[in-house]
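Dear Dr. H.,

I hope your travels went smoothly. While you were away I took the liberty of generating a structure for the chain from your last submission, since the lab meeting agenda had it listed for discussion. I wanted you to have the full record in hand beforehand rather than looking at slides cold. The sequence, exactly as received, is reproduced here:
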Amino acid sequence: MSVALSLGNFYGIDSAVEFLIIIVSIIIAYYSNKVYNLIRYKQFRFFSFAFLSIAISFIFKILSNLTIVHKMTIQNADFIFVVWHQFEYMELLNFSSFILYKAFYLIGFLVLFFIITRTKDKEKIFLFSYFCIVAIILSIYFNFIFHITLVFILLFLANHFYENHEKIKSTNSLLVFVAFLIILVSHLFFVFSEMHSLFYLIGEILLLISFLCLLVNQIKLKRESKTKNIKSFQNETRRSSTPRSKR
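The corresponding predicted structure, in token form, is as follows:
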């Protein structure tokens, strides 16, 4: 019996991109935690948790694309039939992994949303979580609902980081804004991915680029936290995360 393994579409290019996203997300989580250990600002601890959740989500995403088949040879008189048959429970593994991917991915961005909005009210957290669960369930039948839900979350995040950059005018704030803007655009491509599979691949590549921008930002923050006085760096970081006052 021969066994063959298939990993994703586009000859596995999408899975390779997703693997890189996992690596980058883990490094971002690591650097965020390192910054937290230096300045003891909880925002970076939650930021680390959010990207760890995103990294886990893409592990499940790769598993959801995994296909393992075995070759069966059937000989009957003068005819030989070769049949490739998928292993039992493979579809269940793919489906379960895809749902877990969506759950962990949404958790990651919800945590970022709660950090930015400083949401501590348990009722609001429960309400947002409930809507996300509903979105995941509906996306079983209409996959674009999952991405539209993320587009709404990302619109708010991108707008916040734009206002933050307008207030600070630093390279770090620009990198974060550009990163979340690219993530937003990537999910707009995902919304239309069912129309053409190329949109899906473009979205994946844009997602990787955005995460690389965030990684560069985290590395810069880590270096700056070492070179600057810790107290002054704490104050600067807190000012950058303070909501902008309306005039």
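Two observations you may find useful: The mean pLDDT is 79. The radius of gyration is 21 Å.

With kind regards,
E. W.
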